[in-house]
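2024-03-11 09:14:02 DEBUG pipeline.ingest accepted 1 chain
2024-03-11 09:14:02 DEBUG pipeline.ingest length=368
2024-03-11 09:14:03 DEBUG pipeline.predict start
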Amino acid sequence: MTIGIFARVRRALLTGLAIASPLVAAPLAAQSAAPAIKVDDKGTVQVPAMTVPVSSMLSPEAKVYVADHLREMQQPALLQQKNGVPVFMEPYLARQKTLFAHRRVEAQIGGVHVFDYAPAAGIAPGNRNRVLINLHGGGFSGCFPGCAELESIPLTTLARVRVVSVDYREGPDHRFPSASEDVAAVYRALLKRYPAKNIGIYGCSAGGMLTGMATAWFQVHGLPRPGAIGIFCAGTTMSGFGFGGDADFTTAPLGEARPAPVWPPADPSSASKLPYFAGTDPRDPLVAPGSSDAVIRQFPPTLIITASRGFEFSAAVHAHSQMVRLGVDADLHVWEGLFHGFFYNADVPESREAYDVMVRFFDRHLGR
């Protein structure tokens, strides 16, 4: 009886497969016509040309934003900086100044040039003894005040908190550890007014990397750790191509409309191609904090923000995994289909989501 059941099931399956075979065969035939993927004995994959549409999971506004960004990245004139503001960022900055009422004071703190921001509505009562330090993006070679403004204006207004953006020294005129020294100088000065547990530090891209580097610098130089930090658009590692991992190769075309880097590299020992890091050791935890479990283990609560097309994506995911393994209180938020520094455009719903995550995180973790 059991054998009879098996026989009937087998006949039904064979009949179903025969009926379905035209539907199954078509995609298989199409796949067989596609260029072959090549894999060498070390696992290096050669991927043939392929077509990747904008993610279906994005908001309508973000879909337009991604398409516009990819076209802009193919126009070198839009990447040039005017008075520290990349041309393609000018509309984002003008829009932020319209949306977020704030006051900005140019000052020196600890002997370092800064922009000191406050909301036009005034500091919230619960934030009077709190301050955020912003470390701007720009590849350690520019984007002040452009990136500084875009990273500081939304948070000072939405969180109703003071934000100090540091005009740290950059390449090619300066080398590591100049930026870490400048951040430490500002931090020391602010410690005279604010307890360390009430100070948050954050930044995007180079600023996100510098946030981790400065946190490691504080450890070595006897400064108390801040209450919380935000590593945005970055991780805690570097490579000769970017931040390291798969994203160095997979996200450049999808997120920035530029070719993936050539493998193997001409100089495999290079930690970074950025002039600021010339001569540094990629194993130095003051350069790449992720190279040391001992350093990362002492990190304060950390918020990591990235996007699936950001060239920092792998490094951000790796940093979070490492922190979780070492017992650090770490949050990772990944936005699907978006790119490096996506939240500079305040009109995209996903950017507002990111701002909300930042505001809630620092409010939850900073002392009062």
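2024-03-11 09:14:41 DEBUG pipeline.report The chain has a mean pLDDT of 91.
2024-03-11 09:14:41 DEBUG pipeline.predict end
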